[in-house]
Amino acid sequence: QSEDSDKSSAESDSETEVEQVSVYHKLLATLKTSPESESEEEEDESESEEAGESEREVDSEGSQEMGEADGHEEDKNDLPEQDEAKEMAEPTLGQEQADGADTSCDPNHGVIEEFTDVKHESEFSLETNFMEEESGDCNADQSDSNSSPTFSEDPFKQHMDKQLEEKEVEKMSMLPKTSSQSKWPRLGQLTFSSTLEKHKTLKADKEVDVKQLYLHKPLESTWPKVNKQFLSSVNKPSDPPFTPLQRELFCIMNTYRDLFYPERNALTNGEEIRNAYCLHALNHVLKANAQVLSNNAKRRDQKPGTDSDDYRDQGLTRPKVLMIVPFRECALRIVHIFISLLEVNDKKKIDVSNKKRFKGEFGSDPEEKPPNLKRPEDYEAVFAGNIDDHFRIGVAILQKSMRLYAPFYSSDIIIASPLGMRTVIGAEGEKKRDFDFLSSIEILIIDQADIYLMQNWEHVLHLMKHINRLPLDSHGVDFSRVRMLNLNNWSKYYRQTLLFSALQDPQINSIFNKHCFNYVGQVAVRNVPLSGSISQVVVQLPHVFRRLEAESLTSVIETRFQFFVDKVLPEYRDAIMSHTLIYVPSYFDYVRLRNYFKKEELNFTHICEYTKKAGVCRARRFFLKGEKQFLLFTERFHFYKRYTIKGIRNLIFYDLPTYSHFYSEICNMMKATDSGADATWTCTVLYSKYDAQKLAAVVGIDRAAQMLQSKKNVHLFVTGEN
How would residue 247 be classed by pLDDT, with cut points 50, 70 and 90? Predict the structure, then answer.
């Protein structure tokens, strides 16, 4: 988009977050078999249309493409090392090229600078502005600080004003956390953990008085209106403006504890959770900025020569809240919530800079969506709107105005995807990289964490390694205003992390356990699945769970491969065991199996997230007709496409699926097989003792406990009623 460059030479000053061109060049250079655009119209699921389309594509692509279906499509990437580089580079199937502003390199037009708004710099500067008298916020802030200079009931002040001592910091870095359990009405089983304090058991508030939440103006009056859509129609005006889930979540958020909630569901509670964390983030930013503006006025009025050490009210850099979300649509919804929360009524509209541009780059055209796609509801909910996954945007908020595309060092809130963060943070040794703006993040929100397992989890780990580090440059900060906690490099002990996911996963757990150091402590929701997704299987099918014995977590990958090759595969080599689909969650396992099948000259085809559309059509057709005995099938392909694979008679789960409902979805694909030979259908699942969480999500906690204690294979015969 030519207008997106917007004469952006003026934006090259040191305060703009500049696109990491060299990094992105390198990322793009590693993409050897980049898939076709996601925006292509996908095929209709009907068999006749699919067959016709695949025939046409075979004719047009010629003999070279035919070779791909025989297992040679990705020959140049046969080595797992090369695939690893590609996996690192392309986390979401080629969607990472951002439109317009975020595209760092266009071969036809050369380098395009990322757009940032430099026009409104002075208007949104915290250092040079003062609290507007008529807003009443200034007086409220002053009266609060004057009435009780040593102690405030406001959770924000309590958290940020606490002075940690050296010995407490040592204790946090040396000693393990102690934990306690509690059961709340809506959240269920909670684990509270902390190093510093003996646990004050936090109880769920049955009734919430909005005035006791210390919401900053205007949130007290706007929140009930913004959240109205989630409240019961029988709610009276006197009832609390929170759903039961929001009430308990916000109760924890407002104490500034870390929170891990692994039951986020895009269909049911995703949007009410988004509303709750947006309220908390905006409340934090408004209070922090009001404190700075109030102190600006006090400093202006004080006599020369007076000690001004009382006004330490900010970090080493301005950004306070970092929100990590997977797609542009999520960022769009967050900004809309912020705007609604800041607009007191229709007459008092807030001024939003660059709103039109933002809608153009983060919105979506409803007509772009291809017709005739039959996809599950959860798929439609996750992939709604603009699903580009390479973006970042700074948001500055000052009293009654909001500035989108603020340079990072002039932003209060940064909304970004993991890939958007990865390309600006860069890697060691690169000249153009920047992560100083992450030095003073006080609230980190990671929403939909499970999706990053399907994109590239390394980007999340890379971000966690660079957050709350001392900046390499001063960026014009007034050190007399910087809090001692930031100068002492203790920011990470004050940072609150809010982690929302659709599932429990060891990698997500490790973020919470190894990268969160909040001195107040942590709260994790730890409910166990009672039934498991196997109860959603509607076809009558014998399920054989085969246990493999691994000595350690690091040896599981090798042990699984050997177990499969030596014990499982020989049973399926016979031609009578045709139509065997092998479901492989890990891309690296898939590459290894594909290479082994080629070496052994097995009759197979394969589909992964990098397979071109023509190759997918052919592989499905060959598998359906029985021309290929095996189909290797990756989890990420299923996550992004959700095609129904027809013709399955034998299923092998090389590992348990990341999403438990994928288990029943894949099993239920057998319904699409036009064969009455139900009795010959089989399903084999490989698992180890290290798969406890995933196993419980599939078979239920009681069965999982029995299976993990027993060393024998487990045979389950499941009908739709189980």
Answer: very high
332/320 Cα distance (integer angstroms):
19
Q: Which residues contact 350 (CB under 8 A, 6 or more apart)?
A: 339, 342, 343, 400, 401, 402
For helices 457-466 and 506-514, angle between their N-to-C axes, nearest 10 degrees:
0
For the chain, the structural domain boundaries read 155-300+312-366+377-525, 533-719
**How much is the mean pLDDT over the chain?**
80
Q: What CATH number does the domain located at 155-300+312-366+377-525 have?
A: 3.40.50.300
**pLDDT at 346 > cutoff 60:** yes
How far apart (Å, rounded) are the C-alpha atoms in residues 496 and 563?
43
CA 693 to each of CA 103, 455, 552, 583: distance values in angstroms, whole numbers, following the listed order: 39, 21, 17, 19
Strands (E), 119-268: 178-184, 188-194, 258-261
| Contact between 588 and 84 (Cβ < 8 Å) | yes
Element (H, E) at 323: strand 321-324
Cα distance between residue 654 and residue 585, in whole Å: 8
| Fold exhibited by the domain 533-719 | Rossmann fold (3.40.50)
Q: What percent of the chain has pLDDT over 70?
A: 75
What residue type is assigned to position 531 of the chain? S
Q: What is the pLDDT of residues 305-328, one digit of tens each?
A: 666 677 888 999 999 999 999 999
Buried b (16+ CB within 10 A) or exposed e, 152-174: eebbbbebbeeebeeebbeebee
Q: What is the 3-state secondary structure (H, E, C) of 438-452?
A: HCCCCEEEECCHHHH
Instruction: Write out the DSSP string of 650-663.
Output: EEEESS--SSHHHH
